[in-house]
Structures are given as C-alpha cells and as structure tokens.
Specification:
Distance between the termini of chain A: 17 Å
Strand content of chain A: under 5%
Structural class of chain A: mainly alpha
Radius of gyration of chain A: 25 Å
CATH class of chain B: Mainly Alpha
CATH topology of chain B: Four Helix Bundle (Hemerythrin (Met), subunit A)
Number of strands of chain A: 4
Number of domains of chain B: 1
Oligomer: heterodimer
Order of helices and strands of chain A: HHHHHHHEEHHHHHHHHHEE
Helix content of chain A: 55-70%
Number of helices of chain A: 16
Order of helices and strands of chain B: HHHHHHH
Chain lengths: ~600, ~220
C-alpha cells in the first residue's frame, strides 16, 4: 500500500478540517518582517541559517582559492587580486600576512559558520519539528534569537576583514601567545578582538539552539513517536546538540581567560616571553592550558560537524535503497559511543606539545577506540545499500560520496591517532588531507545530500537534476584530486601553514603537484557557484513538487502539505505507529510511520 | 507542567514529556549542565596552574580581614558570605514551596528575602574586592607572597578576580531575574497562569549558583 496521493497543487490537498481547534498558527496577521525576517517559524529560521551558511561557504571557499593561488603559483602576479584585496596583494602578489589571515579565516568560517551553524543550524531546525511531529520548536522565540545571535556574530566576523590591521591571522585554533599579544602580529590586534567577540556571540547562538533541539526532541514527540521510532537524523541532531551544549562552554571559559590576558594584564597563558628582545613581565601561565581548553571543545566540534551528516546520510541511503536501515539500534549505540568518546580524546591534538607520553598512551587508546563505532556505522551503511533498489538521485549520490569520503579520511585517522606516528605527521599536509576529507568535505557532502533531499520540502520545488549530477561528479572527483596528493606531501614532511615552499630544497619538487591541486580547487569552487545558482534559480523556477511524498519516504515531514505553513500540519498532528524504516516490507514498497500495524503483518 | 498520571504510563512513547516536566524546566537543567562545564573549566584551569606552580599564597593569610573589626580573623568574613548565600537558598526553597500551594503572598515574601540575601552577598563581595584592591591586588597585580615566603606570580589574583567575578556576575543576574519574577508574581501573572512554575525554574538557577559558590569557596579559601 502507499499513502502517496497525487494532487495537482498543494491547495487541493484534502485534509480533515474538523479538528481545527489545535491550529493557532497561520491565522495571525503576518507582515513581511515577521514572516521572512524576524520569523519564529522553525522552517524559515532553518532557511535563514542555510542561506547565511551558503554566503559564508562562498567567502571561505573564495579565501581558499586565493591562498591556493599563492601555493600553486608562488611567483605569478595577479593584478585582479590587487584590485580585490588592495594592500594585501601589493603588485598582484598575496602578502605573507594576508596569506595567514586568509588561512585563519578559511578555517574559522568553514568550521563554525558553515559546518556548525550552516549544517546543524539548518537541518536541526528544519527537520526536528517535522520529523518528531511537533508544530514548532519548544521555544520558537529562543530559536529566533539563536539565528540573530549567529547573524550578529557573522557581522562582527565580517567586519574584522575590513579593519586596517586585518583579521586574525594566527590560525583558527587561536593559540596564545600569537592570539594573546597584540604586538605579536598585525592580525593579533583589533582583528583578534573582533574574532573573540564574534565567537562568544556564536557560542550563545549555539547554546540557544542546542537547548531548543534537546527539549524539542525529548518533550515534543507526537503520540506514538517513542525514542526508538525516531529517524536516525533526529538521534544524530540530539547527540550533536548535547555535544555542543557541553563543550562550547569550555571554549567560552578559555576565551574569557584569553580576553583577560589580552587586555587586563593577566598571565593565564603567558610566561617567559620576549618580543623584539624585550622581556614581558608575564609569568606563571601556561600556553598549553589554552590548548587543553580549546581542544576540549575542538574535538567534540569535529563530531558536532560530522554527526548531522551521518544522520542525514543514514536516512537518505535507506530511502533511496528502498531498504530498512541496517542495524538501527547499533546506529544509535555507535552515535552514543562517538558522543562519549568525543569528550575523551582531545589531547591527541597535542601529542607534540610536550604532553607526558604516558598520558599520551591513554589518549591513543581512546582515540583508536573511535574506530569501532565508526566502523559499525560504515558497515551498516554498506549493508543498507547492499542489494537495494538504488535510486541514484543527486541526494543519494552525495550520501554515497559521504560514505566514501568518511572511509578514506577515517583510515588516515588511525595513522594520526598513534602518538609515535604523529611525531612525524603532525602539522604536515597529511593532517590537512585527513581532516579535510573525513570532516570537511564529508560533512559538506552530508549537507549537500540533505539540501537535495529536503529541498522539495523547503521550497515546494525540485533542484535541477542535471546541474545536481554535474555538481556531484566534479566535486567528488575534485575532492579526491585535491586532497589525495596531500597525503604524499605530508608523508614527505611538508609542513602546513607555510607561505611558500619553493625556497625549501626538501619541498620544491612538489611545485607542480601544488599547481595541480590549486587548479582542481579552482574548478571545484566554480562548480559550487553552479550549485548556488541552481539553489536560487530553483526557488522560483524549479520544477514544482506535485505529490506529498516525492521520494516515497516514511517519515512524518512528508505527511505535511507541500508548502507547510507555520504549525506544519493542518488539523491534528498525526499519530505514529511504527519506526521510520519499513521499506519493502510484506510486499509493500514503503509503509509510512502513520500507518497502524495490521494484524497479519510480519514482525520487524 | 507536572500532572498526575496512571502508574503504568509509557513515558517515552511520545505525546508527553518523558520526565513529566514542561520544556522550560528541561532547558534549565541542560543549561545548568552547560554552565557547570563553564565553571568546571575555570576551576580546572585554576587547579592546573596552581598545582604546577612551585608554591601558592596562603588563603589564611590573604583572607583574614573583617569590616570594622580589622584583620587577624582568617576566613571569618567569607564564612559569613557563604552562610548568607546558603540561607538565601533556603528562602528560595520556601518561595517554591509557597508556589506549590498557590500562595501569592508567601511567594512574594520569600522571594524578597532571597533577593535581600543575594544583594547582601554581592555587597560582601564588593567589600572584599575593594579591600583586596586596597591592599594592592587586582588583575595582573598580586601583593601576597607564597606560603613558603617566595615571591608569587600574579596568577593568584588573576584567577581569584576572574572566577569570583564570573560567579558574582551569575549572582547579579540571578538577583535581577528574581526581581523580575517577584514583580510578575506581585502583578498576578502566575496566579492567572494557575501555577508558579517560573519560580521553580528561577529557583533551580539560584541553587546552582549557590552550589558553584561552594566549590569556589572550597578551592579558593579552604584548600
């Protein structure tokens, strides 16, 4: 059976109207300002997060194009670059200080503004109420505040690009003393203050959002939606929110101490420092202390970025294989294990800081333990698609790409998790390759999969498929072409964060390879612009969605009207009778969660 | 809000809160966990630096003054401060209790006592800060020698003012929130709602702030 009913237009969708007493939304007088700007509708807020995230992805991506030009063509002059960046690219050549600023901003923007706010901000907001069966978030007002704190954080970060001394340039991790002493570099002056203010606002935004996600998932599930009937997307968003709520405050504390070191004469992170031959009075602090506080967030942050992508990939792989997810409980268990381990491995970022090797051994063990839940997830994804009737939609391709990248990048994590190997590999291009593949690009792929899959629910139209396929294949091939060679460079000892390599006898033979990487990076960037075009073009001109459930999925969001209003369901919220993964069961293609279990049905 | 339900209710099957609490209280609990990590990070940072320092100033020497009575009374004043804050927790419990019985007058009375307790604590802290500042201590300045007689780094003052300041800021916010909800109670907002749940949520925050002080007291004054 199928509850996929064909309707010509959303307005003709028939729904029971006798239960209108529950619907209070949609009857308010809505102005442009309350509907599109200061909206409290979780779907609008999700789109605000998404579009702001896309803006930042373009900015962060453009930064990488510019510094890749420097790395690929260290001697070339680009007059347009001087037009764009002015002083930063005097004579068409990127200045060293600007290079460091761009690398720093690329990291900050992509990690926090794109892959945290843009990813979990978008999809937690969009999917949680729709998939648990709630009219909106627990507190729509706090949800709105969450976006606007992010917006103000964005404005502050953006403004730091335009101050005379430039944005912060000491790396996205903002280690002291570079981040603590204004005299250390131009970027460490007001640019760093703006960076800290922006990040503090970002933490507030993340907290407001996270509390809402947790409260909504626990408290607002519709009747029958037990925790073990939740789609895996929701479990992933839940653990993501818990990670954020418990790890961002530690970063916040670290930042407060940093602000005091910068402006109030304290020495939390500072000791025994000379600048230009002058001894500073600071004594007794510890730069390593900052690294501990930073990575206590920094490592969970990796999973804040990755878990939503995992959840969405699980859902999309199952829907498009027309098969139940393999090992549903194991998927939840492994998400939980990853969440716990995420808090216990932070010092593997600090193996070469002088950490006691005995202590390091424990962090090696705990780090390598993450391979267990990760492998469970990978095998479950592979067994989910095994012998499925796979539909290669763009969303499915990106979900498959996510699994591929997660495996490739995850394997190099086993190298880096060993403290002995890390002595050689630390701060080389091997690390760049590892985390870009496993966390950066993989999560981008999860995000793209989510956008292609839920775009019909967001805008009532489809994204263009042909452009989607071009987007996928160029990005997929490009991602490997960019990052695979970096493994070789890293194994050869080529350090990251250097401005140019052609003056080093040991690394100058990588010149042509660097050129190749840069060219591919530019092509991949251009294809992302194609995607952005597809996104905005399709909002107004895309093919219209004519059925309620275009993918034949079981989850609740497809029981809402094609263009759901604020409140999501007209009439009562549907009751849930089964889990989300009854595909190909008892001869039915799919059975929606709202269908009661019939007497002669086989057990699942 | 809390409601009576049959004993065999399936709490986790959806359609109701599994903890039988409304979302605001759930959010408050998660927020407090989050905030506990903020303070935890501060206190662990303090502990790390202190333990890795060769020596540290003796709290019995630093904190030995009492207003109008002079010095030579180690930890007496901070004991008074701690006592005031704990009493304010008790009055908060009484306010919540009155709220359960829908007794508007009782809620307002005990909330006012809680506010007075909070303000008294903040005044004590202001005096202590002013006194230490007068003795030459501030962020980046520390006049107190180590317990073994050597010259101390400034980190004793740095951590003391940062962490007690951060805690004091929490108390201050708590007092402001208490004043707001007391005015709301006085204007009958909760009476119209039929419950005093807001007092409970504010109470959770207030108890948390008190609990944090216990740790601050332990690690800065006693150890």
């Amino acid at each position: 059976m199928s509850n996929e009913t064909s309707h010509g237009h959303s307005s003709t969708v028939s729904v029971p109207h006798e239960t209108h007493h529950e619907v209070h939304h949609g009857h308010h007088h809505e102005t442009f300002l309350t509907k599109y700007v200061f909206s409290q509708d979780h779907k609008t807020i999700a789109k605000q997060f998404l579009i702001t995230g896309m803006f930042w992805a373009l900015v962060g991506g453009l930064f990488s194009v510019i510094f890749r030009l420097q790395l690929g063509f260290p001697d070339a002059k680009f007059p347009w670059m001087e037009t764009l960046l002015g002083e930063w690219a005097k004579g068409g050549q990127l200045q060293a200080e600007a290079y460091y600023a761009l690398v720093t901003m690329h990291g900050t923007v992509l990690v926090f503004f794109v892959l945290t706010a843009g990813l979990s901000g978008t999809f937690s907001n969009f999917l949680i109420p729709l998939q648990v069966g709630a009219r909106d978030m627990a507190s729509p007002f706090m949800n709105m505040l969450s976006y606007w704190f992010f917006f103000v954080a964005s404005i502050v970060m953006l403004s730091s690009l335009f101050v005379q001394t430039g944005p912060f340039s000491g790396g996205w991790t903002a280690y002291p003393p570079l981040s603590a002493l204004g005299e250390a570099s131009p970027g460490s002056k007001v640019g760093m203050d703006l960076w800290l203010v922006s990040m503090a606002l970002f933490v507030v935004s993340s907290l407001l959002g996270g509390l809402n996600y947790i409260a909504t998932i626990l408290n607002m599930r519709t009747k029958g939606m037990s925790m073990t009937r939740l789609p895996l997307t929701i479990w992933a968003f839940f653990f993501t929110a818990v990670l954020g709520v418990l790890s961002f405050p530690v970063l916040f504390s670290g930042f407060i101490l940093l602000i005091f070191d910068r402006h109030f004469g304290t020495s939390f992170y500072l000791s025994d420092i000379f600048i230009n031959g002058q001894a500073l009075p600071n004594e007794g602090g510890s730069a390593i202390l900052y690294q501990h506080l930073f990575w206590f967030l920094g490592h969970p942050e990796v999973y804040i970025i990755l878990l939503p992508a995992m959840g969405m990939a699980s859902e999309i792989l199952s829907v498009n294989s027309r098969k139940p997810i393999f090992g549903y409980m194991a998927m939840i268990g492994s998400l939980f294990a990853i969440t716990i381990l995420a808090f216990l491995v932070w010092a593997h970022h600090m193996f070469v800081t002088g950490l006691n090797p005995f202590l390091g051994a424990f962090f090696v063990l705990l780090t390598l333990l993450i391979a267990v839940p990760s492998a469970i997830k990978v095998f479950n994804w592979l067994t989910t698609i095994w012998r499925g009737n796979i539909r290669f939609t763009p969303a499915m391709l990106f979900a498959l790409g996510f699994v591929s990248l997660f495996i490739s990048g995850g394997l190099t994590g086993i190298f880096l998790g060993n403290s002995a190997l890390d002595i050689h590999l630390h701060d080389t291009y091997f690390v760049i390759a590892h985390f870009h593949i496993v966390m950066g690009v993989a999560s981008m792929f999860g995000m793209f999969a989510g956008i292609y899959h839920w775009y019909p629910k967001m805008y009532g139209r489809y994204l263009n498929n042909t452009l989607g396929y071009i987007h996928f294949w160029v990005t997929m091939v490009g991602a490997y072409l960019i990052f695979w060679p970096m493994h070789y460079e890293g194994l050869a000892g080529m350090p990251r964060r250097y401005y140019k390599y052609d003056i080093w006898e040991s690394f100058k033979h990588f010149g042509e390879l660097n050129k190749f990487i840069s060219i591919v990076a530019i092509i991949v960037f251009l294809v992302q612009i194609l995607f952005i075009f597809n996104f905005f073009y399709s909002i107004w001109k895309g093919r219209k969605v004519t059925t309620l459930n275009p993918w034949g999925a079981n989850t609740l969001e497809w029981t809402t009207p094609v263009n759901p209003g604020h409140g999501n369901w007209i009439g009562e919220i549907p009751e849930v009778h089964r889990w989300a993964y009854d595909y190909g069961k008892d001869g039915h293609d799919h059975i929606a969660q709202t269908v009661p279990v019939s007497a002669d049905e086989s057990k699942h | 809000m809390a409601q009576t339900v049959a004993a065999n209710t399936k709490w986790w099957s959806g359609g109701k809160s599994p903890f039988n609490v409304e979302y605001g209280k759930l959010m408050m609990w998660y927020f407090l966990m989050s905030d506990a990590f903020t303070f935890g990070a501060f206190l662990i940072a303090y502990g790390t630096v202190r333990v890795s320092s060769p020596s540290w100033p003796d709290p019995n020497f630093v904190f030995q003054s009492f207003p109008f009575l002079g010095s030579g009374m180690p930890l007496l004043f901070v004991s008074l401060m701690t006592f005031i804050l704990i009493v304010s927790s008790v009055t908060m419990v009484l306010a919540v209790h009155e709220g359960h019985h829908g007794n508007k007058k009782g809620v307002i009375k005990w909330m006012i006592w809680t506010i007075i307790g909070g303000l008294a604590f903040l005044s004590c802290q202001a005096w202590e800060w002013a006194h230490l500042h007068h003795e030459g201590a501030w962020w980046g300045r520390n006049p107190f020698p180590n317990a073994d007689g050597t010259v101390a780094t400034t980190n004793f003052s740095n951590f003391f003012f940062t962490i007690t300041g951060f805690h004091g800021f929490h108390v201050f916010s708590g007092v402001v929130i208490n004043i707001i909800v007391t005015i709301m109670a006085w204007r009958g907002v909760f009476e119209r709602r039929g419950h005093y749940l807001m007092i409970e949520k504010v109470g959770l925050y207030w108890h948390f702030v008190d609990l944090v002080w216990v740790f601050v007291f332990l690690f800065f004054y006693l150890v």
